[in-house]
């Protein structure tokens, strides 16, 4: 079940993500771009170049979960910002 709470923090990676990346590849992006505890339960958000695919990486007390969604049409909108960094949103 997918559930989020206001206690979680959300971090958006602004660079382009290769959607073939799995748990280890996404964890590597987090480690490379932010000094943040991966096991915190916070949500890390990744998008592809066309912004029609999104992956969320979350630690849920027993292991990592990756949620993946592909839009049939349209794109995900990004909040204002720039650069290839991971930032809190």
If you had to describe this structure to a student in words, what would you say it looks like?
This protein is α+β, with helices and mostly antiparallel strands. It is built from 1 helix and 5 strands; from the N terminus they run E-H-E-E-E-E. A 5-stranded mixed beta sheet has the order 4-3-2-1-5, with helices on one face. The longest helix has 11 residues, at 23-33. The protein is globular.
Q: In one word, what is the shape? A: globular
CA distance, first residue to last residue: 23 Å
Helix proportion of residues, in percent? 10-25%
The side-by-side strand order for the widest beta sheet comes to 4-3-2-1-5
Beta-strand fraction estimate? 25-35%
Q: In a nutshell, what does this entry contain?
A:
With 89 residues, the chain is of the alpha+beta class.
């Amino acid at each position: 079940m997918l559930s989020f709470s206001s206690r979680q923090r959300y971090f958006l990676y602004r660079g382009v993500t290769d959607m073939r990346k799995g748990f280890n590849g996404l964890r590597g992006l987090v480690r490379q771009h932010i000094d943040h505890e991966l096991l915190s339960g916070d949500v890390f958000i990744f998008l592809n170049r066309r912004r029609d695919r999104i992956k969320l990486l979350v630690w849920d007390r027993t292991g990592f979960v990756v949620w993946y969604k592909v839009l049939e049409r349209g794109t995900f909108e990004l909040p204002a910002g720039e650069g290839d960094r991971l930032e809190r949103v």
